[in-house]
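Journal club prep — side note

Before the paper discussion, L.F. wants everyone to see what a predicted structure for a comparable chain looks like in C-alpha cell form. Sequence:
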Amino acid sequence: MTAPRQDPLRDPRFFADPYPAYDRLREGCPVQRVPTGSGGHHAYLITGHPEAREAFTDPRLSKDTARFFAGRPSDRDLHPALSRNMLASDPPAHTRHRRVATPLFTTGRVRELRPYVTRVVDGLTAAWRPGAEVDLVAELAVPLPVTVVCELLGVPESDRAALAGWSHDLFDATDNGRVDAASHRIGDYLTHLVDTARATPGEGPLHSLLRDCDQGGLDRDETVSLAALLLVAGHETTTQFIGNAVLALLRHPEAFDRLRRDPDLIPGALDELLRFDSPVSVATFRHSTEDLRVGGVDIPAGFPVLIAPGAANRDPAAFPEPHRLDLDRDAGGHLSFGHGIHRCPGAPLARAEAEISLRTLVTRFPDIRLAVPEQSLSWRRTRLTRGLTALPLAL
C-alpha cells in the first residue's frame, strides 16, 4: 500500500465532486495511509463500507481529542465547549452526555415537534411565489434547522442569525483563525445563556435542558459543551441534507416526478437521498490508542483515523450501482448518521425537517428547477460536511 503524495481530500476538485477520488482510493485499498495537510503528518482514511462500520464500533479508535493532542504543539485556540464535547469524548464521559441528549430526539419528542417544524417551513416559504427565484440554502435549508435548535435551547430570535453565521464559520477549512474565533463567539454566548438561565427561574426549554443536565451529572462546562454541540451539529448537517437532497432530485427528474405524484413516498426516500450524497463526507476525529487491524490493514497506535461516510455510502460492495439514485433501494445501511455509540442522536429530527421541507417543495412548487447552470454551483470548502454555498431555484 503506497500513500498518496498529497492529501487527496484537499484537491480543489474534491469539493465539487468527491466521488471519483473516493472511488480511486477505495479501489486501491479501502483503508489507506494518507498525508494530512502540509506538515508531513499522516492519517488512515477508511473509504470502504464494511471497514467503516467496523471502525465506527472499535473501542480502540478513541474520540478523545484532548488525549491525543496533550503535550503536542499546536497553534489552534478552540473554545473548550467546542473542543471538549460529546463528539470528542469516550465512555464513561460520553455515556453521561448521551444519556442527557438522546431523550431530546426520541420518536415521540420529534412527533411533538413536527407541527412546530411545519409552521417554521410554512413561514419561511410564505412569500415564495411561482415564477420567482429563491436561494434554497439561504432561505430554507439554513434558517429552518437553526430556528428549531435555537427554539430547543431557548435562544432569543434576535440572536439566531449571528449564531448561524458563527456556526457556518466553524466549518471553514481554509482559515483556522476564523474557525477558532467562531468557536469562542459560540462558546462565550452559550456560557452567558446558560448562566443567565440558571440565575433566572423559569419553565422554558433551556430550563428543562438544564434540569436534565443536572440530573445527568453534567457540570456547568459540560452543559455548555452539550448546548454547543446541539447547536452546531443540530443544524449544520441538516442544512446540507436538505440542499443535497433537493439537488439530487433536480438532477434526477424521474425520481422528483415520483415524489411529486405521491409525496407520501418521501419518508421512504430519505435513506437513499442520505446515502447518495451524504451531508457528512468525513466523520469527526478519531485516533488509534493501540495497534489494530481494519480491513486487513495494520494501523499503528497513535495515528489519526478518518472514516468517510460519503465514500462508504458509494461502496459497490454494499450498494450495487452506487452512483445511481434509486428510490426503491434499501439504503437503511447508509452511514450518514454514523454507527455505534456515536451515531447522531438528532437523526430523527433531521429526517423530520428534511421530510417536511421536501413535502412542501413538491406540493407547493412542483415546477422548481435550477435557476443557474449546474456547473456554476459552488460547494463549501470543508471535508467534514458536504453542502452547497447556495442553491438558486426558479419556482
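L.F.'s comment for the group: Residues 101 and 345 are 7 Å apart (CA to CA). Keep this in mind when we get to the figures.
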